[in-house]
Amino acid sequence: MALVVAALAVLVAGxxxxxxxxxxxxxxxxxxxxxxxxxxxxxxxxxxxAERVCAWAVSxxxxxxxxxxxxxxxxxxxxxxxxxxxxxxxVFRDPPAAWTAIRRVRIVPPAEQxxxxxxxxxxxxxxxxxxxxxxxxxxIRLAPSADMHVELRFTDSRGRRWQRDDxxxxxxxxENVARAPAPVEPV
Length: 187
Hints:
26% of the residues lie in helices and 30% in strands.
């Protein structure tokens, strides 16, 4: 009799341990799922303002004719978010001309209307140029500004670095990014 009671006690203890182990696994899955939900919420919150920053190429024939003079590359940038974005880089590309240019803007405040930025801070030609883009004098003919590929890179107010490619797709490319110091004007 004592042996049967001992066997039953071992069986009940084993079942209790199994149930406790299953409950622990369930709690771990629930904590993991809660962590995943929190991460998804934080990502959505982080993207909210970044989603509201966009740019498009403009040409001398469009609305911004007064600002973009003939032959000058420019883009309209709109920050429809709630906070400024920093260290904006507008990257212009003309692939058939193997040409890339970058325009840097220190801060873009929130605004109802887009701001137009013309010209660029640096440019390069790297790679093969399509034959029909080479002028008789050897210079390279660029596409009209409105036909340029435009990419944006910027830092949000929380230090996250974002990139919007020339197809409009937004991706986070860095976190806890230190903002570049403001340039010092010579006296």
